[in-house]
Design a protein that fits this description.
By secondary structure, the chain is α+β, with helices and mostly antiparallel strands. The protein has helices at 10-18, 84-93, 116-130; strands at 3-7, 23-24, 39-44, 47-55, 58-69, 78-82, 103-106, 137-141, 149-152, 155-156. The radius of gyration is 19 Å and the shape is elongated.
Length: 164
């Protein structure tokens, strides 16, 4: 088994942060030496955001991180090999996986329309036109709504314009 680091460009990283997918199909496929089952750390411009494994020409997600983990290896875009010691050090430095729990996720937008059906159509058109890069979503632990925060592309986002 080999160990790899795949650093995505900013656009591909943003896409991966925006949507839940099972696999990543990198623009440049795995290196010729890579084999199915090889471990992969996925990184974006700010650090490692997930762990996965090579599967055909894709990387199958195994674990996503809530926050980016900075690493010196994530400097250049593309694939790079990691030796087993570097891989172990990286994995040991990651936070422990969280237990799965229930979350309330909401997006509320005021819409002016003639009727409910038109309001719903306008809502979905607006959502599609802006998408997860521009629409903050409110996320709270189920049963603890007062602990909620605003998220944008998988990261906490301040909604108070005076705080930016």
């Amino acid at each position: 088994m080999r160990y790899w680091l795949l650093v995505l460009n900013e656009d591909d990283f943003t896409e991966q942060q925006a949507y839940e997918v099972d696999t990543l199909d990198p623009a440049e496929g795995p290196p010729g030496e890579a084999a199915d089952g090889d471990e992969v750390a996925l990184a974006g411009p700010g650090g490692v955001f997930a762990l996965g494994a090579v599967s055909d020409a894709s990387v199958a997600y195994r674990r996503r991180l809530e926050k980016l983990h900075e690493t010196a290896e994530a400097a250049a875009e593309g694939w790079s090999a990691l030796d087993p010691e570097a891989w172990e050090a990286l994995v040991r430095a990651l936070p422990r996986p969280e237990r799965r729990s229930d979350w309330l996720v909401s997006l509320t937008i005021p819409v002016e329309a003639a009727d409910r059906a038109e309001a719903v159509r306008q809502f979905w058109s607006y959502i599609r036109s802006l998408g997860p890069a521009e629409l903050p979503t409110f996320v709270a632990p189920y049963g603890s709504e007062l602990e909620g925060v605003s998220f944008l592309l998988g990261s906490e986002h301040e909604q108070d314009p005076e705080e930016d």
